[in-house]
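Objective 1.3, modelling of assemblies. Example input:
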Amino acid sequence: MKITIAVDLMGGDYGPSVTIPAIVKVLRSRKDLFFNLYGAQEIVSPYLNDLKGYSNHYQFFPTEIVVKTGMVLTDIVRNGLKSSMGAAVRSVADKQSDAVVSGGDTGAFMALSKIYIKTFQGISRPAIPAFLPTVKGLCLMLDLGANAQCTPEMLLQFALMGKVYIHAYLNVQNPKIALLNIGTEVEKGHKDIQEAAVLLKEHPELNYRGFIEGNYITQGDIDVIVTDGFTGNVALKTIQGSAILIKHLLSKAFTRTIFSKIGYLLCKSSLFKAYKSIDQRYYNGAPFLGLKGIAIKSHGHSDVIGFENALKVAINMVERKLPSLIEMHLKKG
Amino acid sequence: MKITIAVDLMGGDYGPSVTIPAIVKVLRSRKDLFFNLYGAQEIVSPYLNDLKGYSNHYQFFPTEIVVKTGMVLTDIVRNGLKSSMGAAVRSVADKQSDAVVSGGDTGAFMALSKIYIKTFQGISRPAIPAFLPTVKGLCLMLDLGANAQCTPEMLLQFALMGKVYIHAYLNVQNPKIALLNIGTEVEKGHKDIQEAAVLLKEHPELNYRGFIEGNYITQGDIDVIVTDGFTGNVALKTIQGSAILIKHLLSKAFTRTIFSKIGYLLCKSSLFKAYKSIDQRYYNGAPFLGLKGIAIKSHGHSDVIGFENALKVAINMVERKLPSLIEMHLKKG
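Predicted structure (tokens):
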């Protein structure tokens, strides 16, 4: 099977200086790939040289506009195909590509994906999931920001889609699912989360385990953590902030005395291994769950390793036919 | 000025084996303190020996019931003064004590405080604040779980009370205040938070700086972070969970090879200093803000150092007359 991926070359902080080297890395190991590439001719051209030798594996489509954070959403939508992001998304809707990857503005990418690719019946806005490192491996949390306010029915949809995604991506069978809350007793939290708890508990396809508190996210006892996009976004970013604080404290500690400096040199390679296990670049690339096609959001700050990972997520999800699996589960739900 | 503190000796996971040694430690350095102590005679008695030599500094009141998590709130309230927690809270309402400290169940302590001590006009439920370590020092976040759903007016009250508390506790003048949100653009988040932003911005007493995202909490650029109790509780516990994960990864890294083991020994004392700066015990003890008296919640898992810190918070807040300061600011608001 030949897989075709559309890439918004301009998305993300570094544009083609990151997106094209990442494509080259992926092409080196797989010959069954084809890329539809969208971007501004004059900016992209110098980087296309890197793709020499892969001329049968890509086509470049010049576009006029680059979507930037801060642009008005209605303008982005009105200009549609003129932007690298819009044209890339549209190629999935038109069946020219099997998936689209962009590191551009999340709101714009989500809006264009909804308009062109469309969501399954009953899904008002797709959910954004993320894998998080835990003491025992990875867990999946969703929604991470697409839906600031959620009904109990939406939380049930997130649970069903999360189950499909973690099975497709990590092959977790019958994942343990919990709702993020401020306590584990049934009466904790607000009305919506209590109603969602009933829906998840009664659903025959879900292995629902009750509420989980923030301090247990990283314990690894739960596979899929379901939450509204507001709380999920705050939790995800808070984990990132905590890691930055601890990194700061550690680097101060390791340079405090001559002993700690020598000690650091001795620990360095072990510490690097530990750091790699929580390095976000290796978890980069999240599908918009609930779309009829595959759109993968790469983090805006991603470097080549991060964007390469997002491309691999796209390929993986095409191979596993993510949208059909989701549709099947939502129909049962 | 003699300061009288009521202590629920039975509160917290370790009861009088922690609460009494902490009282002894505080009494060693200050002679102007008096403690009203409440607890079960047979459990407390052996520990009272530790207070020998301080017989002029405490009175013990035996009580029948110990409030435990899982007990029905209406039962706790109905039994009121029969419990060590209820009697200790009541002594503040009756002006027998200047403040009460308990490590018992938060919901019960909050309910009893509301009933006996009462809140200021317009405060439906007191807010729970916490100090968090940042790259630049401490910041204050509230609410941490007392109010799962908040109106814009409540978020304004939290901002005003947070301003008073961080000034009273850390002497921060004109603290920088922000609302926790999922983005910094004005249109981000839900309706309540956008309305709250307008209230905070327009209030002449507040140095409002806009929205803050979860990853910036630990950066230390903002002094008071205002949020609803649901999001705040998740964020606080997520920070705790992240710290546990990183501790786990570090201890694996430090024991991985003979080099990293030796390296760890060389870094140990510097690492311990770094760890101390995020050790929650030194931040233990949070007032219920908005009460007409002083009630300090100690973490249930606290050891002697933690409970001692909660007692110090109580003493500090009595000296600074926290409730009058809060009342004054709420009236202006």
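Chain B touches chain A through 61 residues (CB under 8 Å).
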